[in-house]
Amino acid sequence: MKWAVRDLLNPVVTRSLLYGCDPFDMEYVLKQIDAIQVMSGRKIQAVWLGEWDSKIAHYTELMTKAQTSGSAVSARAYAKLITVCHYAKYMINLEDIDRKKEIYNGLRESYRKYASLLPTRTEYIEIPSESGTIPAYLHFPDDGTKSSYPCVVTYSGIGSCKEELEMLAEPLRERGIAVICPDMPGTGAALMDNGIKCGGENLDAAIDGIYSYIRSRADIDIQRTGNYGLCMGGGYAFRATVRQPVAKSCVSLFPLFINYSKLDSIPIWMKKGKWASYQYCDDFHASMEKIEEGTMKADFLMVQSDDDNWMTPEASERLWNKAEGHKERIQITEKPSYVSEETIMHSMPVGEQYHWVKHEAADFLSVRLGGAE
Length: 373
Description:
By secondary structure, the chain is of the alpha/beta class. Helices cover 47% and strands 14% of the residues. Strand 7, helix 13 and strand 8 (327-332) form a beta-alpha-beta unit. It is globular. The N and C termini lie far apart (51 Å).
């Protein structure tokens, strides 16, 4: 069966839209790819990256114009558009690691610019851990001058970065909650600058380091903390709440314990190639068994779907049964739009519903941590 190019790009398109990419920009770029006369992976990459570079140049011109005229709102809006275009570039898995780093640096710098234009305070922080330094952002819901804030730590999985976690942080900031968005092992600057690969021991070290950091901050209330993650990050959030029982609540969107998944259900690009090898510890799959240790008694919200082709309903139930305190579940029943027989994309069912799920998740955390509208 011939694979349609759009089907092959579904994982990239889905995550880009989820992060906030303008759908008309996305359709324009896809049409440029449709117009390629002789398809090849290299040509598709070149067109994808080139078209987003053109969008970045256009929005940068508009941002500069807005800043010159003193229009802070427009400048911030264009800065976000620039960031999501860089993110769309970052979603492409490249075998050229140096090129991948270059693309990430563009995303990192564009997000830094966007964060500096937010009306709320954002701190870039570096968190010591036994596995190395964990770069992160600490977002405040206001100017950061209050004596104490509830705080949620957000987590994402492989192929992500702290800049992507803006999508989880924004609804929490709006509810009066401070948010820590770290580059977990195998992601972002933790990987590219500090060489911290993804594996069970490194993940536990990062979690412990993050909570040690929280305890060191007088303006964060350790008694009002929670964990919140998507995909593999949903598994990390669960693990963090087990490992750090001071946390009062946990939200897992489409949680993935990678060791619960059958290896043949995981896409080949996550298992082989230079980019995959660059992200993982040598004993990755076996080491990840560590994150399922123990049970959790904090309040728990799990969002799941039977269309998850990495975590079967039986695997999701296995995780659900490890939560022994108050727990609630949202079952996504809508069939995913961005799917085909050839596409393996774990985050589709909940990703496509994130526009409303994010409010349910943020409210769940806000009620338990004492956030404020």
